[in-house]
Amino acid sequence: MVFYAKRLAHMVFVLWAIATILFLMFRLLPGDPTIAYLDPSFTGEQRQMILHDFGLDQPLWWQYVLFLGNLLHGQFGLSFRQRLPVTDMILSVLPNTLLLTLVALIAAYAFGALVGALMAWKRGGALETIGIPLVLATRAAPEFWIGMVLLAVFAFGVGWFPAGGATSPGAVFTSNLARYSSADFLRHLVLPAFTLMIYLQGLPLLLMRSNMLEVMGEEFVIMARMKGLPERTIMLRHAARNALLPLVTAFALGFGATLGGDVVVETVFSWPGLGRMLVDAVSSSDYPLAQGAFLMIAAVLVTMNLLADIAYGLLDPRVAHGRR
Amino acid sequence: MDGGSTIVLPAKRRGLRTALRRYFADPYAVVGCVIYVVFIVLGILAGWLAQYDPTEILFTDDGQLAASLPPSAAHWLGTTNLGRDIFSQLVMGIRPSLFVGITAAVGVSALGTAVGVLAGYFGGVVDTLLMRLTDVVLGLPFLPFVIVLAALLGPSLQNVVFSVVILLWPNAARIIRAQLLTLMQRQFIEAARVTGASHSRIILVHILPNILPLSLLYGSISVGWAILTQASVSFLGFGDQDTISWGFMLQDAYASQALSQAQYNWFVPPGLCIVFVVAAGFFLSRGYENLIFPKLKQ
Amino acid sequence: MTTALLSVSDLAVTYRTQAGLVAAVDGVNLEVPAGAMLGLVGESGCGKTTLARALMGVLPGNARVSRGRIVLDGTDLQALSAAKRRALLWRDISFVPQSSMNSLDPVYRMRTQMREVLCGRGDLSRGAADTRAADLFQAVGLNPVRLNDFPHQFSGGMRQRAAIALALALHPKLVIADEPVTALDVIVQRQVLDMLRRLGEDMNLTAIFVTHDIAVVAYLCTVTAVMYAGRIVEYGPTADVLARPAHPYTMGLMNAFPDLEGPTQDLAPIEGSPPDLHTPPTGCRFAARCPFVQPVCTTTYPAPTDVAPDHWAACHRVGEAETLRAQATEAATWQS
């Protein structure tokens, strides 16, 4: 329990520090510090109201206290352009981003774990000779470029998939569940998810391969052979099962990191998600929205880092029992 | 991966030639090196190789805009929708990529080494503060932070390098600190301290030469990251619009409907160049890793 | 002695290393009578673990059986297809590893690991497997409740007992145990040895114990084979071999262990180290360290010669064994 409490305190500290950095960054902008919250096109009355709401007529230290207080209540202010609460805007696109990330990540880890295990099992085979440079090349390719090539071939070329967005224009859904499970949404999801997957599979694949190589030399794998178990059982139940443990941590860490990396993929495919919202907000100087989107991404990242630690403990019986 | 292994110092005692021979015994290292040399040579010769000014709008002999021409003898990779020569853009794009990659590598290894050495050498409060700082920086989402910084600082290559450096140093710092802690246990540091050597002398003469291989490794890993980041930032529209880079070319192609026009000659080559340069960086650091962590080699 | 359950003839195992080929096992002849506990004793690096693994047919990737025959209960194992050989593993011949710390899969409970063998290799139903697993745990002195535990929750001695229970699961004809008690502390060692002795009598077990500890052989084994530099140099009933060793290496080995009952004497270690098997000597492999070496020893390998019924030694001076034994007890003999 002490361990969890410590990790949680650490997470809160990191989040606080990030929020503070962000607060200072937006106020270090040249010119009027209120630029972070105020749009010149606001009417005088709106201006006064918001200045007061956010305490922008107060000294810097008090503004900081108010900023943190607002954060604790989940308040990020109003978007300049849409004039809507930032929190609501973020929450409306969050499911799109989470779904995209999760689908791509699960596909990438399933593929990576399987192929990585196979590569190790067939050490020195053709799969490895061709596979390793290919995997390194996918790690070296910019995600948005992979997306562009896929778009040109599969959307504009053969026309199997739509060129962008999350749903067809004019599509109406009775509920959120109906929306996310509709064939239309899934068809839009394929290319961006596949792009992300290609980028993401390299890490679990290489990790799985090196873990497998290590585990395959372990005594219990040799014993499994001596027991006359079928090769497949030895590979999957014993070697792969043990080699999989570190991948769980990598998965959770990957989820946090991917959310930030989604930015480019969402932009290529005009996917209405958090990353694209951030890009749009930054390029149109919609600072409250940019600040909110950034903090949201950072919060997910830091939370997933915490979960990575906890998940590892739960999955490895040695660690799990050691901690009690 | 975990840096728990102690490094074996390559060049210092056994001679540079042995180290080089072992390094180039790795086929990945050779391929990586060849790719690098080719790109560096092309980058130097870029001004001569590019037949046209990459930003110049070209016209055909009959006075028409030379827009979206397919590849030909005159335009090896064709032209953009505004009549610019794609091949010329491609070779000129080598320079910003290499600039970003190399300066970021130097920056990351310098900052990472400085922080790692300070934290590990002085320990105590300095260590705690610096390590907390690395935790915070590692909590920052990479690309979003680079975008926000680029927007606040203004679009330029230097700013991209700056963002990459201040985000990537913590990994290097952590590993170097860990390595330093094991180093500090060794006799010769203790001996230097007992004989009254100053902090700066111990760090410069006894510690840095032993840490250098690791700094170089982290520097070489950063090359690829920096190039990819620069491309992404340009693609998202936060890059320097006056510098022709591969990222800029891809953004230009994307925004100009090259995808729906199937102008593969426009958007495939810049992407491939990025893949080659970044992969070459991976290959190089892989071979290098084998050299300083021989235990990992199987 | 009756018919041999296992008979090994002229077996050689070769490793491919960076420095060339090494025959870690080179022309081993060995018979294990049914119901016997055979102690395979020798210094570390003499090839006894390689021999044990070759009998299982599970060798490291760079090693292979380069010559010889292994016949188990009338079946020539080397002639079998890989699939047939695997089918016979654990049902006919099972293994107790040296370090059960890593030999049990850390992520599965003991019950699962028992079931894997009992159901997967022994065709038992789950229920029957659980009953059998509980019986086995009881037999090796473990509480069946512990079947629900993970290996890391066991102490070293308990893990070794669990590994033995696993090895006995399918009533194998032959159990090979590779240094089964070496990693344990002395008291636990004794407990596990007692348990093994009892099991051996109760179940009429045929087993090979690989060990470097001649005391373990004396305590547990009915037959002893002494291995040196990839070959068996002496073989015979334990009582006979220990009382009347005929090979100088065996004599030396016995000197290296204190005799608690006999008169106090200086322990005399055998000086020098085993030959480099990349370039094995042409004659007797022990010649370089042997205090009784003669010119013939360095040129010709001595043929195994009977010294008593079922007791043989590979030494040119077998005939003078009695005289040599007397000299070998003097510490001075071993100091060059």
Write a structural description.
The complex is a heterotrimer of chains A (324), B (298) and C (336). Chain A is an all-alpha fold and 324 residues long. Chain A folds into 2 domains: 2-72, no CATH class; 92-315, Orthogonal Bundle (MetI-like fold), CATH 1.10.3720.10. Chain A is 75% helix and 0% strand. Chain A is built from 15 helices and no strands. Chain B is mainly alpha-helical. In chain B, 71% of the residues lie in helices and 0% in strands. Chain B is built from 12 helices and no strands. Chain B has helices spanning 11-14, 16-23, 27-49, 86-92, 94-122, 124-139, 142-153, 157-184, 187-194, 199-235, 246-255, 264-292. The radius of gyration of chain B is 23 Å and the shape is elongated. Chain C has 336 residues and is of the alpha/beta class. In chain C, helix 4 (110-120) crosses helix 5 and helix 5 (126-139) packs across helix 6. Chain C is globular and about 65 Å long. The model of chain C has no long low-confidence stretch (mean pLDDT 88). The chains are: A mainly alpha (324), B mainly alpha (298), C alpha/beta (336). At the A-B interface, helix 1, helix 5, helix 6, helix 12 and helix 13 of A face helix 6, helix 7, helix 10, helix 11 and helix 12 of B.
In brief:
The complex is a heterotrimer of chains A (324), B (298) and C (336). With 324 residues, chain A is mainly α.
Tell me the name of the CATH homologous superfamily of chain B: MetI-like
CATH topology (fold) name of chain B? MetI-like fold
SSE succession of chain B: HHHHHHHHHHHH
Series of secondary-structure elements of chain A, N-terminal to C-terminal: HHHHHHHHHHHHHHH
Main beta sheet of chain B: strand number and arrangement? none
Query: Structural class of the helices, strands and pairings of chain B?
Result: mainly alpha
Measured by DSSP, the beta-strand proportion of chain A falls in under 5%
Mean pLDDT of chain A: 82
Cα separation of the termini of chain B: 15 Å
Briefly, what CATH class of chain B?
Mainly Alpha
Estimate nothing, just give the exact number of structural domains of chain B.
Answer: 1
Give the helix tally of chain A: 15
Q: What is the CATH C-level name of the largest domain in chain A?
A: Mainly Alpha
**In the CATH hierarchy, what is the architecture of chain B at level 2?**
Orthogonal Bundle
CATH topology grouping of the largest domain in chain A = MetI-like fold
First-last Cα distance of chain A: 8 Å
Helix content of chain A: over 70%
Counted beta strands of chain A: 0
Largest sheet of chain A: none
Tell me, what's the shape of chain B? Answer: elongated
